[in-house]
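Progress note, sequence design subtask.
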């Protein structure tokens, strides 16, 4: 078995990837800013990063931040080249090349860095995780009225299924840009928000607000969706039922696909 470094290995996705790789018998190093023995801020790099990648065969790059991703990737790639890493696997987002959203632009730039790194590489793009959608809705529902960008669809995917796919890719040979991975259903953001409110027992008026700008147009037109790659099986309703309990969320999911 191989030695694999998982960046962001304590995060929502990285933790699951780490568990699966270890269960498969790989030696796994977890890199995060605060977890020893590989506590590294990728944006700073340095000797600690060099030590973390020394002797590593494969890196699964799950770490991400609203700021500094490109510098973090540059530092990681430099260290990986110096250590003779065989394979760099990067998790990206569907639509980074179609929706001019600032964070997406940064993810696309990192993709380009990975492709031009001189390392063997694999890039997987997925739609947004159920967990991240809930974080968004938690924030929006703090007010008495839940305001949503009008006309925006979404296609959330189960993070555990993404972890399964990344584990498979990390154990294999470099594959370049692999097929996108989307959740099983495309729904309006309003329907997802109403399902969340019902599952959590919150009462909020839902108001759809037309916005402006190229990024909004990109989301509204579905640039972040992968309807032809709806390979995920876990629905948002099933996720809500598992997280909050009850059958209503499952029923809502069933109706959305009817």
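Output:
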């Amino acid at each position: 078995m191989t030695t694999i470094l998982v960046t962001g290995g304590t995060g929502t996705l990285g933790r699951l990837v780490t568990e699966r790789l270890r269960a498969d018998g790989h030696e796994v190093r977890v890199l995060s800013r605060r977890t020893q023995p590989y506590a590294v801020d990728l944006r700073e790099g340095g000797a600690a990063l060099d030590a973390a990648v020394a002797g590593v065969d494969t890196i699964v790059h799950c770490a991400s931040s609203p700021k500094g991703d490109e510098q973090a990737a540059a530092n990681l790639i430099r260290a990986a080249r110096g250590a003779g890493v065989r394979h760099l696997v990067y998790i990206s987002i569907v639509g980074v090349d179609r929706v001019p959203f600032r964070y997406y632009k940064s993810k696309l730039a990192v993709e380009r860095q990975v492709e031009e790194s001189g390392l063997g590489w694999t890039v997987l793009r997925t739609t947004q995780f159920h967990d991240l959608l809930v974080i968004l809705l938690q924030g929006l529902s703090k007010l008495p009225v839940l305001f949503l960008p009008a006309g925006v669809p979404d296609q959330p995917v189960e993070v555990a299924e993404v972890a399964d796919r990344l584990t498979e890719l990390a154990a294999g040979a470099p594959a370049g840009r692999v097929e996108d991975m989307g959740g099983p259903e495309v729904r309006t953001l309003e329907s997802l928000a109403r399902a969340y409110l019902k599952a959590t027992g919150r009462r909020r008026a839902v108001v759809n607000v037309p916005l402006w700008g190229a990024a909004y147009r990109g989301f509204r037109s579905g640039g972040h969706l992968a309807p032809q790659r709806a390979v995920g099986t876990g629905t948002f309703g099933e996720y809500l039922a598992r997280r909050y309990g009850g059958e209503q969320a499952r029923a809502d999911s069933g109706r959305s696909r009817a």
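The domain at 3-127+159-177 is CATH 3.40.50.720 (Rossmann fold). Work on this subtask will continue into the next period as scheduled.
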